[in-house]
Amino acid sequence: MTITTLTSREFNQRASEAKRAANNGPVFITDRGRPAHVLMSFEDYQRLTQQRRNIADALAMPGIADIEFDPPRVAIERRPADFS
Length: 84
Fold this sequence. Notes:
The chain has about 80 residues and is of the alpha+beta class. The protein has a domain of about 45 residues: YefM-like domain (YefM-like fold), CATH 3.40.1620. The chain is about 30% helix and about 20% strand. It has a 3-stranded mixed sheet with strand order 1-2-3. The radius of gyration is 25 Å and the shape is elongated. Antitoxin component of a type II toxin-antitoxin (TA) system. InterPro entries: Antitoxin_Phd/YefM, YefM-like_sf.
């Protein structure tokens, strides 16, 4: 992984180069000598955040119908509550 650092001015002048560099690692963009932003590929961003899906999103995934899932039935017996 290569880390690239560009000033805000360099980034504005060489945005295409910065995007290419982001494929090899993060690109730090400085403002007055201090890191202000980070440019990274979308794949790196997804890997970094790895947000959990909720059940509705998981069920809406393409190809979900191809997954076989047949959980066993569970018998739940009721018992009277003991308040003694």
